[in-house]
Amino acid sequence: MSTMSIPELIAEQRKFFNTGATKEAGFRLDQLRRLSKALDRYEEDIYLAVFKDLHKPRFEMQVDEMALMRGELDCALANVEDWARPFDVPVRGRVLANRGLVYPEPYGVSMIMAPWNYPFLLLISPLIGSIAAGNCSVLKPSEISENSSRLMAEMIADTFDSAYIAVVEGGAEVSRELLAEKFDYIFFTGSGQVGKSVMHAAADHLTPVTLELGGKSPCIVDSKANIDNAANRIVWGKFMNAGQTCIAPDYLIVQETVKGELLLAIQKNVRMFYGENPMHSSNYARIINKRHFERLSRLLDYGNIIAGGRQDASQLYIEPTVMEEVTLDGPLMQEEIFGPILPVFTFVDLADAIADVNSRPKPLALYFFSSNLEKQMRVLKDTTSGGVTINSTLLHASTQTIPYGGVSESGMGAYQGKHSFDTFTHYKGVYAKQIAGDYRPGVPYPTVKP
Q: Where is the Aldehyde dehydrogenase domain (predicted)?
């Protein structure tokens, strides 16, 4: 962690940015390689820190954080020289001899604020985009995942000069102090409530923002789905990280005729993933802290538990749980669950499921299971969400060629791969006019009178 005050740190980064060093593609490549080596060097420590914070299994960490960070790094390393290169665009009309250019340039000093649920991925992944685009960066990890935050500060300080990239640790007061400062770009991942505060603070400085928020991501299963396949992928996406994933299926809407079959298949897959008692499984994470545990525990009172439901406050453990008879106006359906609780509803006609989705704030993700291509296209056409995965869960957020982000209440802006570079880049338009031959017959000029 930097020992400078926040204003001093930002001034130091702005001074370094103004040297122009970060604008060179070679410099950016070197820094991306340094980050890659740091992840190698700290890999075992990262697994341990996240386990201490979330009891997160090593294999889960390898798949849903480390592999995704590696994918982002590989993509940036392979492409940053091309991305950063100015490119020609056609100039239309009577000025064909002149030239149009688009010049990618960094914003300057960016701030990246990350949550506790994926403490490395959600800080490092946007950082890769910021480095590739040529920015300096201030990183603010969540104080809730304290072990991960401490290790992140150590790793970044060991890898980069604080005048280029630095971690600032602390709680809400530190976040407010950071947001009072002028940044050139802010990238925030977290809750909608905090996102509003970030956007309000950014507005004071007219600072552009990306907001990666959350919401209630629906999962629709129709009668044409492969039920065993759907159950397997729903259990994987919902209960990974004990349900503490911003794009986890939040609630399930299943066609009435296959509800019983699907629920049995879900219970079978929970046993297959985590055994008869997931509390004893090394593959199942825990709730982050007591406050979140108590919030989730209260939600179990608002419906009928048909599978799971066991809990242990001393271990911050809540079993993978499936519920029905949940009221639409109750707490389970008025807030993002962000835990291992899956409410189940039914529909008769697909139009009813679509209408339910459209009656709620636009979600960060939507999942649809069906072998019917026409129905797939109908769901894509008739609903709005940040992203969609068809016949699986989470996967749209794991591919560098697909933009990942929210819409409306679930966020604004997107990243992953080239989209991360674009997010942290200002595309400057350049018109290069020829020097000779300024006047051409037929090209009107304003009449100048003395």
A: 10-429
Tell me, yes or no, if 246 is annotated catalytic.
yes
Which amino acid is residue 233, in one-letter code? R
d(CA 244, CA 8): 36
Residue 416: which region, alpha, beta or left (left: phi > 0; alpha: psi -120 to 50)?
left
CATH assignment at residue 56: 3.40.605.10
Instruction: Find the helix or strand (DSSP H, E) in which 139 lies.
Output: strand 136-140
One domain for residues 310 and 201: no
| Of 12, 72, 212, 319, catalytic | 212
Give yes or no: 136 in active site: no
Residue-range definition of the domain harbouring residue 337: 218-397
**Nearest of 288, 290, 308, 312 to residue 300 by alpha carbon:** 308
Number of domains in the chain: 2
Confirm if 213 and 406 have CB atoms less than 8 A apart. yes
Among the listed residues 246, 319, 336, 409, the single catalytic one is: 246
Residues 16-51 have pLDDT tens digits of: 999 999 999 999 999 999 999 999 999 999 999 999
Residue 443 lies in a domain: no
CB atoms within 10 A of CB 90: 7
Instruction: Check whether residue 104 and residue 208 sit in a common domain.
Output: yes
